[in-house]
Amino acid sequence: xxxxLTIAIRAARQAGNFIAKSYEKPDSIExxxxxxxxxxxxxxxxxxxxxxxxxxxxxxxxxxxxxxSGQILGEKNDxxxxxxxxxxxxxxxxxxxxxxxxxxxxxxxxxxxxAIYNPMLxxxxxxxxxxxxxxxxxxxxxxNNNELEGAIIATGFPxxxxxxxxxxxxxxxxxxxxxxxxxxxxSVALDLAYVAAGRVDGFFEIGLKxxxxxxxxxxxxxxxxxxxxxxxxxxxxxxxxxxxxxPRIVKKMVLEMQTELSDPxxx
Length: 267
Ligand code: IPD
Ligand code: CA
Ligand code: CA
Description:
Layout: H1 3-23, E1 31-33, E2 39-41, H2 42-58, E3 62-66, E4 70-72, E5 76-87, H3 89-93, E6 100-107, E7 110-118, E8 123-128, E9 133-135, E10 138-140, E11 152-155, H4 165-178, E12 181-183, H5 188-196, E13 202-205, H6 210-222, E14 226-228, H7 236-239, E15 242-245, H8 247-257
Parallel strand pairs: 3-5, 11-12, 11-13
Antiparallel strand pairs: 1-2, 3-4, 5-6, 6-7, 7-8, 8-9, 9-10, 13-15, 14-15
Helix pairs in contact: 1-2, 5-6
């Protein structure tokens, strides 16, 4: 196994197990407001520390970029670990058991390693660039659903950027005419892992951050899917507007969405 994947898995499992234990002890959870409609807990922060410690033990010189601590610049800035210690914090605070740890390793701006761990189901999604994606050691292949008809599309509401509400609802209305149904699970990392696993056929969301999707993006690609922005381009790292699925589904979603995009969403 790739040595960095071994460390990513160790970190994801240790943090995930801590989160799952904390889930059983609601009194130990302190919830703080963060930005518009967002939350962070002491558990997010502790899980992040656990991950940082595991990485630094093996790779003290690598850069680490995390949601809660920001950037820890290492001597080797060409290797970056991008971490969301708890993706699905709102679910976690509501005791809705759907959340995950997400860890990606980027070397020279290309994602090489991905690990997403759902501690409640003991599901570990992993990918190494060029070597495929796996769930608990079994190879993942994205379902080749090529039509929007019958497709289940996962999405997230723009709850932190409500200026996009009207455009978002228009996109949903347009897609809903063609697809079978939608899912809003509350965890981007798991949404993308589920695209890779064929549990949903496509995904889109406005304004994501790198730690939300970096690991999931590699999983989707290594399972045979593609990831683009809302016009089929590659600007999602900057815009955070992300679309994922099989190449044919993504192409069809892009076509349907075009007429509904406001200017800021055209990238
Ligand atoms: C959030 C979740 C949610 C998505 C938000 C993310 P967090 O991440 O993934 O599904 O809709 O855009 O910010 O805050 O729980 O790590
Ligand atoms: Ca997140
Ligand atoms: Ca988070």
